[in-house]
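During the no-cost extension, the postdoctoral fellow (Dr. R.K.) reprocessed legacy sequence entries with the updated structure-token encoder. One reprocessed record is reproduced below for audit purposes.
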Amino acid sequence: MRPTSDLRPLSVPPTKLQVHAKVANSSFVTASTDIVPDSERRGFIGALPPRLRPYASLMRLDRPIGTWLLYWPCAWSIALAGVDGRWGLFLWLALGAFAMRSAGCVYNDIVDKDLDGSVERTRLRPLASGRVSVESAWLWIGGLCLIGLLVLLRLKPTAAFVALVSIAPVAAYPFMKRVTWWPQAWLGLVFSWGALVGWPAVTGSLSRTPFLLWFGSIAWVVGYDTLYAIQDKEDDALVGVKSSARRLGDKAPLGIGVFYALAVLFWGAAIWSVRPDWIALLALAPTTIHLASQALRADPNDGDLALTLFRSNRTCGLFVFLAMLVVGLSAR
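Re-encoded structure tokens follow.
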């Protein structure tokens, strides 16, 4: 759950919600357009035909940060493997990250449809408000998965198999916040999976290096998603959703720092496995400084700052990518 406003139970289902404004002549005007969130009236989604806007919202098309965070581990793994002339893989896996992140968002909304419809913050989501049917959402997922299949066909067999294995943990993720205080760790497993795909997409096989990248990325995800979850603490408590931010409480900045430190250590080990040279580890200096700054600035009671720091991980992912690219190309 990602709060942007206070959570308040609805007394009627969102699809029947009507807002009436009394005017001077004592008549009433029904504001049926209130069922459409502001995010569908502006920006890229607002420029789309009205019938497509709910589907774009399901995909979180107005929030590309999720696609970036899913893509970066793929790019790191390709880069550290040395690319081997297969530069097109960066674009193919970017397309795959976009399609799979979008499909994951739709699936998450299907699972959480009833929960979303019961709270003010999420009641206007397309499925919760009834603007998109569950059947249509499943068809939308099917279309996005066809794009994913197209990407799979461009990969070497080992990479394609590893990518397919990710379906099971992805399917389980939406339920984790109901059963564990650490859903962020499960998110780390699935959002970091690209680290296990990029390497065999270049080399044709797995080795310990992509697993070291994967472990580092898992720790990174736990850190940045704990930042994200700081926004949720009060509202998550109201609806019974668990998170690392709630578990850590006022010690969240320390926990974030610990996970970020683990991430850098695992990434350093991955670099060392490719190029055992202390100078090569200096490539991680910008990343280390960036993550340390996040941890030091984090405030467990400042949701706005937490969101800003969370979003800065797109830049962190770029720093890691440049480090892996330099090391990967120099090790060949």
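The domain at 14-330 is CATH 1.10.357.140 (Tetracycline Repressor; domain 2). The first strand starts at residue 20 and ends at 22. The remaining legacy entries will be reprocessed before the final report is submitted.
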